[in-house]
Design brief:
The chain has 113 residues and is mainly beta. It contains one helix and six strands. The chain has a single domain, classed as Beta Barrel (OB fold (Dihydrolipoamide Acetyltransferase, E2P)), CATH 2.40.50.140. The longest helix has 10 residues. The radius of gyration is 16 Å and the shape is globular.
């Protein structure tokens, strides 16, 4: 049962160009925002699209691959785990964030030439 704890799979569209960051120790991290859509009809029968945005991060070689292979608007599949963390802004306000940390990804469309 441990193999399926804290496991997430999402298919969506990339909302930004991947932001690759290299740290002083040589480590790499990439951030993207992934949009997923839910379609339904409201009480008047009108079609509604509700978009959810997901914070996605990848580390190390996975980050390098994502930065090279993924582009804004492309549909991708992500497998990973949910991580909650907090940080403090420059003004001293504490912020909380939930991210999907990538363990695997798959392009469902080719990157534009």
């Amino acid at each position: 049962m441990n193999a399926i704890q804290n496991q997430v799979q999402i298919i969506g569209r990339v909302g930004n160009a991947p932001e690759l960051k290299t740290f002083d120790n040589g480590g790499k991290m990439v951030k993207i925002f992934l949009a997923t859509n839910e379609y339904y009809k409201d009480s008047n029968g009108e079609s509604i699209v509700k978009t959810q945005w997901h914070n996605v991060v990848a580390w190390g070689k996975q980050a390098e691959h994502m930065a090279r292979l993924v582009d804004k608007g492309q549909q991708i599949a992500i497998k990973g785990k949910l991580v909650n963390r907090s940080y403090e802004t420059a003004e001293g306000t504490k912020r909380y964030i939930t991210e999907v940390v990538v363990t695997e990804f798959m392009r469902l469309e080719r990157k534009a030439a």
